[in-house]
Amino acid sequence: MRVILLGPPGAGKGTQAKLISEKFNIPHISTGDIFRSNIKGKTPLGIKAKSYIDKGQLVPDEVTIGIVEDRLQKDDCKNGFLLDGFPRTVAQAEALDNIQEKSGKKIDVSLLITVPEQFILERMTGRRVCPSCGGSYHVKFNPPKVEGKCDICGAELIQRKDDTEDTVKKRLTVYNDQTSPLISYYKNNGILSEVDGTDAIDKVFGSISNILGAQE
């Protein structure tokens, strides 16, 4: 089964992707993870990607398409995959279709997690992380026992640069301008399915499982 996961930043795609990967035994391929590993290793690709990501912009198509095509040729993708963070534009979607056609395959379903923008702003701007041990919190949904302090190691919690209101709004603007047309693209192809991302994690996953189960 070949699945694409769509939705705005902060829609909970990463959480659902892990659950889907485990239940349906397909690799979760996140372009974000690929970029982060390159950024951490300070590779030429990582340095180039970071210059765009830091501004809240998308990494150019030719860079992204190349690394995704390379990843899809690995052995663990023979029986399917879950793409998270790609495609982000119609041009990338067309490139992905071409990649699949070359191997005589096609995308089975495109899952769209829908979440209102105000909900996303509240969810993302409220996130706090511990720079020392990596603990994760939310000022409203998962607050630390002592305000501003990590429960595990007591370090001062921080807000990541990409979780500030200005950056989140920029990312949503980029999503609406460049990624939203994908919804029409996959709807026209007859493979788009939507789930409500404001529900509890297990309820969202239940809806997704029903959709994917019908594909098997």
Automatic annotation (TrEMBL):
Residues 127-162 form the Adenylate kinase active site lid domain. GO terms for molecular function: kinase activity. The keyword Transferase applies. Its EC number is 2.7.4.3. Residues 126-163 are annotated as: LID. Keywords: ATP-binding, Cytoplasm, Kinase, Metal-binding, Nucleotide biosynthesis, Nucleotide-binding, Transferase, Zinc. Zn(2+) binds at residues 130, 133, 150, 153. AMP binds at residues 31, 36, 57-59, 85-88, 92, 160, 171. The keyword Lipid biosynthesis does not apply. It catalyses: AMP + ATP = 2 ADP. Signal peptide: none annotated. Residues 30-59 are annotated as: NMP. Consists of three domains, a large central CORE domain and two small peripheral domains, NMPbind and LID, which undergo movements during catalysis. The LID domain closes over the site of phosphoryl transfer upon ATP binding. Assembling and dissambling the active center during each catalytic cycle provides an effective means to prevent ATP hydrolysis. Some bacteria have evolved a zinc-coordinating structure that stabilizes the LID domain. Belongs to the adenylate kinase family. This is Adenylate kinase. The lineage of its organism: Bacteria, Bacillati, Bacillota, Clostridia, Eubacteriales. The gene is adk.
